[in-house]
Amino acid sequence: MAEEKDCLRGDVEKGEEPVVTITGGACSGKQAAEEPMKVEAEAGPDACSDDLSCGEADIDPSLLELVDEEKCRSIRKQYRQLIYNVQQNRDDIVNTTSESLTEALEEANVLFDAVSRTREAALDAQFLVLASDLGKEKAKQLNSDMSLFNQVAFCDFLLIFVGLNWMEDDGRDALSDCDDNIVRSFWETVQKEATSWMLQAETFHFIFGSFKSEPSARKPRLEHRKRVHRMEENGDMPTKLRKLDLSSNQEATEKEVERILGLLQTYFQKYPDTPVSYFEFVIDPNSFSRTVENIFYVSFIIRDGFARIRLDHDRLPILEPININHVGEGNDSSSHCRKQGVISLSLQDWKNIVATFEISEAMITNSY
Amino acid sequence: MSQKPKSRGHAGTQAELGSGGEEAPSTSRGPGGAASQGGRRAEAPPAPGPRSQKQLELKVAELVQFLLIKDQRKIPIRRTDILRHVVGDYKDVLPELLRRAAERLEYVFGYRLVELEPRSNTYILVNTLEPVEEDAEMRGDQGTPTTGLLMIVLGLIFMKGNSIKETEVWDFLRRLGVHPTKKHLIFGDPKKLITEDFVRQRYLEYRRIPHTDPVDYELQWGPRTNLETSKMKVLKFVAKVHNQDPRDWPAQYCEALAEEEARARPQTGGTAPTPAPSS
């Protein structure tokens, strides 16, 4: 190696020397494999031939530069080609037991003979780094082969494990073309098996759910946590109840109306042709709100034509049934024009009525 | 509702501290639990004085909730976050709080609060209960089934000598229909899942291999993996898939055995939660 240094010292720029040491160093790194030894041996005599050319170059450096420009360009081109090839065939070189790495090294060595300037030498160095990386990988391969683990077999075994043995013969990409369900069941089965080998803590979720998690991880989570504390008791429940109320209200109204209609008709059957005092019917002496509700429901009954309200001789409102017989009469007079009545009742009014009419109990009983 | 992250409290707090009817949640910190609504940090922080058991208990409860929720994403919980969001000026009793919280987590949930790496000041929750076959059905919907994929990758890594290249992983996964660039039915973006999500959750380590062109990366086990599972377990998983005995791979089996022995030896710090003293 010292020889190489000396012979190139002639007209060489200082930059070359470190390059030489890199080359030397890379060579020693490959001592493990047999082939590089040959390379080193070959480098010896070649270096000597350089000796002669260097001597000549000493005479006329400027002329040398001009002449070699073409040559250098072609050397660089060849180096680049070599590097490219090796990179492309990297997998091939590393995984198979071919001699391609050795051949590439020998080719580089031949090229190096003609190298006299930094640029090409740098390319040579680049190539050697690449080659030594590949060499390292090949060595690693040697190790792992001993443990007898075959990835491809692992893959096939996974499929068998899940129960998809008929997929084996499809060659590569077995799972990519098939049914979604099969893919899902494959991963679920693997998941099930995998989780039994890990001590994963289950993720914690509130039963009634939490607010939709926003994309960023931390701050919104905090707010979500606070909100959950405060509103989890209060927030969720009221909205749910409200929803229920709305939907049930619709039916509840109709049900109530029907129920009250039933009560009314029962009364009319018991006492035929006796109209009932409106106030006596609707008023609940114990609850003002129920009274208002009753008025509400009775108004539906009247609207639907199951009962009639009119003023009697005392100018007090009474409810009268509408029989099928009456329907004819009633329709003639009242169907052409809709009549509207508005009843307003204040708390005081209600109390007065209860007192005046001496209403002791509600005619419309509660359904519950 | 106060938007400052300092104001924390929960429904229990309100009733307890008798500030029901207030809109802002009262914080459990503040002198003697008295009305310091909104936990305004702009004012001078109250002098930490002797704290009642009740206050400490409250803090521990909050800490437990915080840890449980933070663990949802499986990203390690940082000590600074704990200080910032929960503990506040109870900093001086942080080790005590952590100890109690860890105790609570272990007794009530069966989860261990472990420091990811010594002196890393990040924590994770690890299950203490061995998974039972029957539970697999009962386990609710825990999101996408990524553990299967993770276990396969971990198995690959271990069987190939504790480190593999990313390209090898993809060569393997391609055969199972998982491509780095194609959208997957279950996993969405598998490349992101493996090289980012799992790494963030500290299941895997993802490093660039120097001097490669085109750039290549290598994958190794992350610290969380060592806490949640072991080489022996992964080997057994692989063996089960092959329907063989783990001893059929002597090199890996020896390695796994060595690790088991190392764990069994009572080590300094071992696996107990050792919260570092608050600085």
TrEMBL record, chain A:
Signal peptide: none annotated. GO terms for cellular component: chromosome, telomeric region; cytoplasm; nucleus; Smc5-Smc6 complex. It is found in: Chromosome, Telomere; Cytoplasm; Nucleus. Residues 275-364 form the Non-structural maintenance of chromosome element 4 C-terminal domain. One of its GO terms (biological process) is DNA repair. It holds the Pfam family Nse4_C. Keywords: Chromosome, Cytoplasm, DNA damage, DNA recombination, DNA repair, Nucleus, Repressor, Telomere, Transcription, Transcription regulation. Residues 124-172 form the Nse4/EID protein Nse3/MAGE-binding domain. Component of the SMC5-SMC6 complex. Acts as a repressor of nuclear receptor-dependent transcription possibly by interfering with CREBBP-dependent coactivation. May function as a coinhibitor of other CREBBP/EP300-dependent transcription factors. Belongs to the NSE4 family. This is Non-structural maintenance of chromosomes element 4. It comes from Tursiops truncatus (Atlantic bottle-nosed dolphin).
Automatic annotation (TrEMBL), chain B:
It comes from the Eukaryota. Coiled coil: none annotated. One of its GO terms (biological process) is negative regulation of transcription by RNA polymerase II. SMART domains: MAGE. Residues 1-54, 258-279 are annotated as: Disordered. Signal peptide: none annotated. Residues 56-256 form the MAGE domain. Gene3D superfamilies: MAGE homology domain, winged helix WH1 motif, MAGE homology domain, winged helix WH2 motif. This is Non-structural maintenance of chromosomes element 3 homolog. It comes from Tursiops truncatus (Atlantic bottle-nosed dolphin). The gene is NSMCE3.
